[in-house]
Amino acid sequence: MTDTISCGTVYLVGAGPGDPELLTLKAARLISAAKLIVHDGLVADAIMAMARPDARLVSVAKQRARHTLPQEDINALLIAEARTGHDVVRLKGGDPFVFGRGGEEAEQLRAAGVPVEVVPGISAANGCAAEALLPLTHREDASAVSFVAGQCKGLSDQNWAGLAGKGRTLVIYMGVATAHAITEKLIADGLSPDTPVAVLENGTRGGSRAIRTLLTDLGDMIAREGVKSPALIVMGDVVKRSNALNKFNAMPFPKSVRAEPVEARLSAEKRPSTSSGLVVFGSEIL
C-alpha cells in the first residue's frame, strides 16, 4: 500500500463544454496553478491557454477507434505521477462523471491508495442545450431526460426502450458517426419517424451550430450539413422550443415532385397526407 502522505493528489476536473467562462471557479484555479495537466482532446484551446507557462501538458486525446493512450495506460500514468509526489490535474471535457470515464479513473486511483478529488463541470448536454435555448425538461413536454452513448460496442443490442417518446427527452453523446444506425434502431423500437431531433455541433465554442429535423431525416441531415464531432443529438418535443434552425425543409425531393403556386395549394382541411407518393412527416408538400 502506498503511503498516501507522500503522494500527490489527482484532481479529476471538468472543463465544461468549451467556453472558458463556463468553468467553475475551482476548475479555473486548479488549471492556472497546476504544474502537470493530463488533458483530453476535447478541452478547448482557450482553456488550455490558462495553464501556467512552465506547466507540463500531456495529451491523452481520444478519437473514434484511435487513442493516444489506452485507458489502462492513462490510469497507470496518473498513479505513477502521483506516487512521485506530483499533484495532477486530469482535465476532461464536460463533466468527469458523464461519459468521461472519470469513474474508472477514480476507482483505480483509490485502489492504488492515491488521493483523488472530483471537480464537476457543466456537462456538454447542459451547456450546449442552454446555448441553443433548448430546455431538456419542460412542464408541458418532458418530465424525464436520459443520456446515452451512441458510440459503443453492440449498439443494436443496447436496450433504449422507453428512453425516448412522449414526455421524454433523449440526449445522445458521440452519435454522429452512427446516426443512421441510431435512427433505424429507434424507429424499429417504435419511436415515431417524425420525432423532432436537434444536432448541437461544437456547442459554446466558436463556430457552434444548432440545427434540427425529424428522426427519419437525422442521418441524411448530418451528411447533408457536413456535421462534425463534437456534436450532441437531442430528441423529443422540447426540440421545437429551441432556436435550432429547421433543416427538414432542405431535404432534396425527387425530381418528379414539383412546387406548385401558393394559390393552387389545397386547403388544410382537404390536403392529403401524401402527394405523388411522398410520405409527409410533419411538414407541407411545397
Topology overview:
Elements: E1 10-14, H1 25-33, E2 36-39, H2 45-48, E3 56-59, E4 62-63, E5 66-67, H3 71-83, E6 88-92, H4 102-111, E7 116-119, H5 124-131, E8 142-149, E9 167-173, H6 179-188, E10 196-201, E11 209-214, H7 218-225, E12 231-235, E13 245-246, E14 274-275, E15 278-279
Parallel strand pairs: 1-6, 1-7, 2-3, 2-6, 8-9, 11-13
Antiparallel strand pairs: 4-5, 9-12, 10-11, 10-12, 14-15
Measured between the Cα atoms of the first and last residue, the distance is: 72 Å
Q: Helix count, per DSSP?
A: 7
Estimated radius of gyration: 23 Å
Average predicted confidence as pLDDT: 87
Major sheet details: 6 strands, mixed
Q: Largest beta sheet: what is the strand line-up?
A: 8-9-12-10-11-13
Oligomeric state of the chains present here = single chain
Please bin the fraction of helical residues. 10-25%
DSSP strand count: 15
**H/E element string?**
EHEHEEEHEHEHEEHEEHEEEE
Strand proportion, as a percent range, falls in: 15-25%
Low-confidence spans: pLDDT under 50, at least 5 residues?
Answer: 253-286
Secondary structure class reads: alpha/beta
Shape: elongated
